[in-house]
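Collaborator request, handled under Task 6.
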Amino acid sequence: MCNAALSPNLGERRNAFAQAALKFPDTIPAADQTRLRDAIVAAVDNQVRPAYLKLASFIRTDYAPKGRTAPGVWSLRNRDALYRYAIRTFTTTGKSADEIHKLGLEHVAEIENSRRRLP
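C-alpha cells returned to the collaborator:
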C-alpha cells in the first residue's frame, strides 16, 4: 500500500490524490478553484482515504497471509500444465516451451553474429 496516498496532507506532491487539487487551468476562477479544492479534500478525507485504509487492513490481515510466498507460475504444483496452456493461449504456435526457447536462443545467436560483422 502506498503510504503517501494515505497522507492527510494533500499538498504533498507525492500524494496521488493531491494531483487534481494542485493546479487548475487559469481559465477557472479562483473562487471555483477553492471550492473544487475543498471538495476534493473533503472527498479524499471522508471517502477515499477511509476506503484505502479498509483495503490496506483487508490485504494485511486476510488476503496476504493466505497468498503465495513465491511469485511466478513455476511456484505452483501444476506449473507445467499452466505454462503449456499459456503458450497455447498467447501464441500462434504449436511448439513446446523448449522448442520456443531453443528458437529464441538461435535468433539471439544470429543477431549477435550479425552485430559482430558490422564495421
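The cover message to the collaborator said: "Helices lie at 3-6, 19-22, 30-63, 79-90, 97-117. The chain has two domains: 3-66, 73-117. Please let us know whether this matches your experimental observations."
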